[in-house]
Specification:
Blueprint: E1 11-12, H1 17-57, H2 67-90, H3 92-98, H4 101-109, H5 116-129, H6 133-144, H7 149-177, H8 180-201, E2 209-210, H9 216-224, H10 226-257, H11 261-288, H12 293-312, H13 317-346, H14 351-380, H15 383-403
């Protein structure tokens, strides 16, 4: 059964004043979606930046540092598929608002935890409530952007990298000078305000686009699509390594080499900085040469796997600083390529559902890696071994993409369902 891009079932009104207004307003949409994704990602990364010193104060063992991160992503994965469908049914505007207000409140309340169990419960609920943020952003960008979709996805995807930079540059320093509680209160308030701003400004679609109601059949076809399944496994391997590294980089460097949390945070900032450049650049290249998207993805994931091995051989700050920017570019560069191609598979009517399905699969890696790396390091005390185990993920992604058939320009090559 052939799978048809669902954009074929929608129509566009004639170009004119409405089209001109849409062309201008789509950049406002991108800005709001990007800011929303940044603040959401900062909330989930914030704990990792101060896990070592605050965890010891709370009496949490090194093996359990990743428990809060894993708890968040368990909830996040559970909510992703439903959240993607909700984005298509309710619209991205309402969905994005609902993914910001509850996490904002819970981030504020996180400072009142006094046990591992309480922290895990709050993080799980945060993940559950934030589960549709990604699919809502992909949905609204897929609707507002056409041929420049790759560039828009690339810019939007810098949100997670910027979040790593902001969180590592600000949270450890604020926690040291004031308190970690103050940092989390501030993040909670900002997240809630962002939700109000998104609801006030965003519109679900341009006046030139007529949306078709998502049907159950559309979702069933997505689940049977071979190309989408390959992207699911590929992204799982990449996100497994990306989140595992982001969650453990600071703590591992601090524990292994006695480097202060502030310096370790600076290394992580340098790690995130190059990703901010790589994501929009690769998204732009995928717009120019859509048939090369698969090979660009393979190159990023292959480099990511190799540089994790190299980073594991480092032993001083200078070496960490030298490798971190290249590692960051590879660790995040593949994401806009995969996101744009998933949106091509689905079309804008089912973009939320496709994003939810793929991201749910990808975030299974987020669930596994923080606890796995904590377990490995607690039993081996080997920085090198921990990084080598993370390197397996992107290597798996390369194998999946090598198994993909033909062109990755899915507008020209409509995949067949199995």
């Amino acid at each position: 059964m052939a799978y048809n891009n669902l954009d074929d079932c929608s129509s566009r009104k004639p170009h004119g004043a409405d089209q001109s207004n849409s062309d201008r307003f789509k950049w406002v949409v991108l800005a709001i979606a990007w800011l929303s994704f940044v603040i959401s990602c900062v909330d989930r990364v914030a704990w990792s930046t101060i896990a070592s010193p605050v965890g010891q104060t709370l009496g949490i063992s090194v093996a359990m540092f990743g428990a809060f991160v894993t708890a968040f992503y368990v909830g996040y994965v559970v909510a992703n598929i439903a959240g993607g469908v909700i984005s298509d049914v309710l619209g991205a505007r309402c969905t994005l608002t609902l993914t910001l207000l509850p996490p904002g409140i819970l981030t504020f309340l996180f400072i009142y935890i006094h046990s591992l169990t309480a922290g895990i419960i709050i993080q799980f609920i945060m993940g559950l409530s934030a589960g549709a943020d990604y699919s809502a952003c992909v949905k609204i960008l897929a609707t507002w952007f056409g041929k420049d979709k790759g560039k828009a996805m690339g810019i939007s995807a810098t949100g997670s990298s910027i979040a790593v930079v902001f969180a590592n540059a600000i949270v450890p320093s604020v926690a040291l000078k004031l308190s970690w509680g103050f940092a989390f209160k501030f993040l909670g308030i900002m997240t809630s305000l962002m939700g109000v701003l998104a609801f006030s400004i965003l519109r679900n679609s341009p006046a030139t686009v007529v949306m078709r109601r998502l049907k159950l059949h559309d979702v069933k076809v997505l689940f049977r699509n071979r190309q989408l399944l390959l992207f699911c496994v590929c992204g799982l391997g990449g996100v497994y390594a990306t989140v595992g590294f982001a969650a453990w980089c600071n703590a591992l460097i601090t524990k292994e080499y006695g480097i202060s949390p502030v310096v370790a945070g600076a290394v992580a900032v340098w790690f995130g900085f190059r990703a901010v450049i790589a994501k929009p650049l690769l998204g732009w290249l995928s717009d120019l040469w859509p048939r090369s998207a698969r090979w660009l993805s393979i190159g990023c994931l292959g480099m990511f796997s190799s540089l994790l091995i190299v980073f594991g051989q480092c032993s001083n700050v200078i070496q960490f600083y030298a490798i971190a920017p290249f590692l960051g570019a590879a660790a995040y560069g593949y994401t806009p390529l995969l996101i744009a191609q998933v949106a091509q598979i689905s079309g804008h009517n089912a973009a939320g559902a496709a994003a939810g399905i793929s991201n749910a699969a990808w975030q299974l890696g987020s669930v596994v890696s923080p606890l796995l790396i904590g377990y490995v390091y607690a039993h081996t005390h080997s920085f090198e071994t921990a990084l080598a185990i993370l390197a397996v993920g992107p290597a798996l992604g390369v194998l999946c993409l090598l198994s993909a058939r033909g062109s990755m320009s899915l507008a020209d090559n409509r995949p067949s369902s199995t």
